[in-house]
Amino acid sequence: MNKQTTAGLTKDELWEIEENNKSRHQKILDFIISFFPIVCFAIAVLEYILVPDKYPNANPKRYLILLSLPIAVYVCRLIHAILLYKKGNRKKFAKVRFKAPFLSAIFLFLALFDVLTLKTGILLYPFIPWVNDIINAAILDKDQLIVCTLFTLRLLFTGYICGVVLGIITGVASGYSEKVRYWISPIVKVLGPIPTATWIPLIMILASSLMAGSVFIVGLGTWFAVTIATTSGISNVDKSYYEVAKTLGSSNRQLVFNIAIPHAMPNILQGMTQGMSSACISLMIAEMLGVEAGLGWYITWAKAWAAYNKMFAAIVIICIVFNIVTRVLDRIKNYILRWQIGVVK
């Protein structure tokens, strides 16, 4: 199918065409692949039960419960997708089939990791604990982990929101006005490339509290990313839009809020996404070096006491929390920019 044929078609229409063009062999292969996670789950369970342990393993059923939760959700989604497929709705099944290889790889990785740690000790304990030992450590110290997680989220969003607000203000001002850009641009170019960790000794001395210093460090990285993206977006707005609006009697305030910011919104949201990544990195650095609580502080504390299973538990929680935050931000971004989803060019 050439480009002229696909021009003007939506993504859903293109997907329908691709599905209709699949051969019987390809459709059978899709169903086989969709059952791979169940097979890999069985391999992981059999490995855990049948292969003898090298180390004492307390509460072994907790690991099996962990394995069972995602596969239970997957099986429910797979059954639902197959029922819809029989009724002619193939989109749900396509989503399930798309995620099947990745979920299969996760189960195989967990099985291999269990072999290298609990079963054989190739990866030395306690420096690298097995998954069930990490689960036990998280459950044992759950109260402190909850407190540290809440503290981390408070610090993250306080610094992130401050950085976003200031970044949008400076970005819009420097992108819309050449006079403001003359003063702001050199500051951004000088301060932006400097690593966050460089500021920590100075901030910890000058800040009124560790919390205030950490908020500044987190907000600084966010401010830089949002400022650069916003400035770029505002600067690239077609000048003819301003001219037409001025002809119709629009004020400078209306030009900024009704033309500049809406047209630059994709760049602003992209900067906010990049700013969240910078904020997460800055947050961990700040917590490890001086904050009195938080997941970064917990990791440093656990490492100092050689409690590596607790350290890995905190690392896993960090991955989960930051992944959820990033997904929520992407959902918000996709919702705001839903007008961009449409015809494939």
TrEMBL record:
<comment type="similarity">
    <text>Belongs to the binding-protein-dependent transport system permease family.</text>
</comment>
<feature type="transmembrane region" description="Helical">
    <location>
        <begin position="196"/>
        <end position="226"/>
    </location>
</feature>
<feature type="transmembrane region" description="Helical">
    <location>
        <begin position="152"/>
        <end position="176"/>
    </location>
</feature>
<feature type="transmembrane region" description="Helical">
    <location>
        <begin position="311"/>
        <end position="329"/>
    </location>
</feature>
<feature type="transmembrane region" description="Helical">
    <location>
        <begin position="279"/>
        <end position="299"/>
    </location>
</feature>
<dbReference type="InterPro" id="IPR000515">
    <property type="entry name" value="MetI-like"/>
</dbReference>
<dbReference type="Pfam" id="PF00528">
    <property type="entry name" value="BPD_transp_1"/>
</dbReference>
<feature type="transmembrane region" description="Helical">
    <location>
        <begin position="63"/>
        <end position="84"/>
    </location>
</feature>
<feature type="domain" description="ABC transmembrane type-1">
    <location>
        <begin position="149"/>
        <end position="329"/>
    </location>
</feature>
<keyword id="KW-0472">Membrane</keyword>
<keyword id="KW-1133">Transmembrane helix</keyword>
<protein>
    <submittedName>
        <fullName>ABC transporter permease subunit</fullName>
    </submittedName>
</protein>
<keyword id="KW-0813">Transport</keyword>
<dbReference type="InterPro" id="IPR035906">
    <property type="entry name" value="MetI-like_sf"/>
</dbReference>
<keyword id="KW-1003">Cell membrane</keyword>
<keyword id="KW-0812">Transmembrane</keyword>
<feature type="transmembrane region" description="Helical">
    <location>
        <begin position="28"/>
        <end position="51"/>
    </location>
</feature>
